[in-house]
Design a protein that fits this description.
By secondary structure, the chain is α/β, with parallel strands linked by helices. It is built from ten helices and 16 strands. It folds into two domains: 147 residues, 3-Layer(aba) Sandwich (Rossmann fold); 176 residues, 3-Layer(aba) Sandwich (Rossmann fold), CATH 3.40.50. Bound molecules: S-adenosylmethionine (SAM).
């Protein structure tokens, strides 16, 4: 994980002062220093709902997408280079020439190559290293190339015709696992349906097209930007869109007949089966007692114990070297 205190290093060392007035922090981790919350007009831009909720709980003002202007900005790197370049360009665009923009990131998130690219484009005022990463800062007019950096990360139609952007799940081509799950979208799927971790909407669009007896489809997605393009990709009026953390879903007033999902398997670089296990538990919570859960997962992910714990019956419908398609019925938590 990135060191949340790294961002304060240039201030602690007396190399930089934060300006008065509103400041923006793009993609802050949940653990950013509490002292920042006390600054007047301090805004966090965090489109990932679980982190946004944790920041809000600590008293920060959080928006999924900021507009500006701000008197200064901070950018924390994500794992996606195009998104990082666009965020640096946006931060510079939203601040005045004398407003500092600080950028912090881990080596593993590509901070060194990003710094190199920024240096090629404009002057960098300072750089410090800490905790396997770097913080650097700049100010001044935005160089012309920053417009291209922003455009490169903007949503575009992929070869299959869906609107997607870098940083989203499988933006350039439909995921093979998702494609396999779609083959099981049959007439047993009807009534109220939910798609957990809907991404840019592939499964949602396919299930609505295949299953005429679906009455409503709730898409739950944690990444705000992905949900926004899903609204363009899924135009069927039966679809409803929720910016939500699936792990936090409670029992709904009207439980679902079917839940579909290709659950996420990591937030950082390593596989984190606990996220998918949380999705399995959530599916069981929100289903009717007679409901079914259709999911696809990387074959090596250990979901069997969770399926056993949360469903009376489950079976592998299909598997190959890469993924397995699973149907689970009769959730144990639905009584
Ligand atoms: C493997 S992708 C599947 C996307 C889409 N259903 C598909 O098949 O192309 C999983 C999705 O879950 C989202 N996600 C990750 N953590 C989440 C959470 N806690 N709550 C809701 N969605 C989450 C990710 O942003 C990602 O879009």
């Amino acid at each position: 994980m990135s060191d949340p205190a790294r961002i304060l290093l240039p201030l602690d060392e007396g190399l930089l002062e934060l300006p008065d007035g509103p400041m923006l922090f793009i993609r802050p981790p949940a653990e950013i220093p509490q002292e920042l919350a006390a600054r007047e007009g301090f805004v966090c831009e965090q489109g990932f709902k679980p982190v946004a909720e944790r920041l809000e709980a600590r008293g920060f003002t959080v928006v999924p997408m900021a507009e500006g202007p701000f008197s200064g900005a901070i950018v924390e790197l994500t794992r996606n280079r195009a998104e990082n370049m666009a965020n640096v360009a946006r931060a510079v665009r939203m601040t005045p020439p004398d407003g500092p923009v600080l950028v912090s990131g881990n080596k593993t998130d590509g901070v060194d190559s990003l710094l190199k690219a920024v240096r090629k484009a404009t002057d960098v005022s300072g750089v410090l290293s800490k905790s396997h990463g770097k913080v650097f800062w700049l100010s001044g007019e935005a160089p012309a190339v920053f417009t291209e950096w922003e455009a490169a990360a903007a949503p575009k139609r992929n070869p299959a015709g869906y609107l997607t952007a870098p940083g989203m799940f499988s933006p350039d081509k439909v995921d093979k696992g998702s494609e396999a799950l779609v083959r099981y979208f049959d007439k047993s799927i009807k009534g109220a349906v939910a798609d957990l971790g809907a991404g840019w909407g592939y499964l949602a669009e396919q299930v609505l097209a295949a299953c005429g007896k679906i009455e409503s489809l709730d898409l739950y997605e944690a990444e705000y930007a992905a949900l926004e393009v899903a609204k363009v990709n899924v135009t069927d009026p039966r679809a409803r869109f929720h910016w939500a953390d699936v792990a936090g879903l409670g029992k709904p007033a009207t439980p679902y007949q079917t839940v579909i999902s290709n659950p996420p398997f990591h937030q950082s670089r390593a596989a984190e089966p606990s996220i998918g296990i949380g999705f399995i538990a959530a599916a069981a919570r929100i289903l009717k007692p007679s409901g079914q859960f259709l999911m696809v997962a990387n074959r090596q992910l250990p979901y069997e114990t969770a399926l056993e714990a949360h469903f009376k019956h489950w079976e592998i419908l299909e598997q190959d070297r890469a993924f397995k398609v699973i149907r689970a019925r009769r959730p144990k938590s639905a009584r």
